[in-house]
Amino acid sequence: MIVFFSYSAQFFKPKHEFFRPIRFLLYNLTSTRPMSKSTSIPKNLLRVRDHGFDNYMEVEKKTRKVLKIRPLILSQRNQTIPVSRLDFLARRLGFEQDEAGAFILKFPHVFEIYDHPVQRILYCRLTRKAHLQIEQEGRALYAQIPEAVTRLRKLLMMSNNARLRLEHVRIARAEFGLPEDFEHSVILEHPQYFRLVDAEETRNKYIESVEKEKDPSLTVCAIEKLREREYREKGADAEDIRFSFIVNFPPGFKIGKYFRIAMWKWQRVPYWSPYEDVSGYDFRSIEAQKRIEKRAVATIHELLNLTVEKRITLERIAHFRMAMNLPKKLKDFLLQHQGIFYISTRGNYGKIHTVFLREAYKRGELIEPNDLYLARRKLAELVLSSSRTARVDRELVNFERGRENDEMRYFKRDGRENDEMTYFRRDYVDDDDDGSLDFGGGKKNGAQLGEEEEDDEPNEFVDAEDMNFAE
């Protein structure tokens, strides 16, 4: 009968005043209305953009390109490279023809282009600020190696059989604050925690934990510490925050009545800890399925907390999917919890999905920054600096450099005290008890400042840049 009415509705489809009452009657007979609204979280939610995180990734897109070009310059002799050769080498990294040369012109605080005094071609090198940022990041990276060891221990505790594939950890080493030589500086230097093994069935290497029992102090999740701190500070009801997560929906996200009820119920669903072994549980019941789904949320939440910047790409989370019992469709799963995580597709033309932990950021900045994060953000500041300030900085550097050369020439020529200021090298001055000065000539009190001495060596000074070019 319903099929007959549906065909009849198609027959009376032409829009005419006479057929409108008949069409309305047939629509009411064929349409099926749900008897009650569901109180579960919808599977398909509309994705709402958060411009704070998207703008963060727009800057990250530029810094990612800078990090591709920087090793090409540092690997060259004297850390300088012709612009034409840089264009040729950058094409292997995905740059188009002449794109690298145009790209470095946009960031004068990072790259410096100059005319070679001998070859008379354009060369490129890193600026002084860029070198200082590299040194700052290197110091911060190796200073937090003990924290990186703790992160790797916690990652192994969250895995099923206390081992992870070495290649997967190497791909995500920057996110977890591991140095490039982490196999030696982290794994081999701490044999009481880790060991490298070769798989019998494949040629892959694995990192295994040698600890027989898990450290109880490391099995406490970051969300559990937040709950305890919130309970102590605000005195909230313990039953309400016992299994809850911090939820901050993006601006413009529509929260309906039934969705609010579903979130209230989901926040009170108990779950197993990511560090707990769940191999002996039966997952066939509906209650167990809810617990294991919420455990997956807690696992990704803890995984993001172990990163340096509280963010990681979705593709790198997928590398740990089998080892940590994560769902297959990770993107759809994370979109159901937009109040906890945010997925940004900006930064690489939608090819890379970056997952942020919403509670760790405020207005696009990390709430609790660390030294390594601040060092990496310093590069972003150099990228965002304008060319006008770079021109002023270059003029100041040239002015100071010219001033130093004039002063050194003045001291080399006269060798005596000026009426306004005395210039001398402290390496060649010795302080005696009687207050006399020795300028390295072997005469303590013999030669007076007013006496002039002949200089057998020619009075020639070479600029530091010219010395580099001569090499």
Automatic annotation (TrEMBL):
TM helices/strands, residue ranges: none
Stretch list, region Disordered: 428-471
GO molecular function: RNA binding
Residue ranges constituting the PORR domain according to the UniProt record: 48-386
Highest taxon, organism lineage: Eukaryota
Biased composition (Acidic residues): 450-471
Name of the protein in its database record: PORR domain-containing protein
Organism annotation: Ficus carica (Common fig)
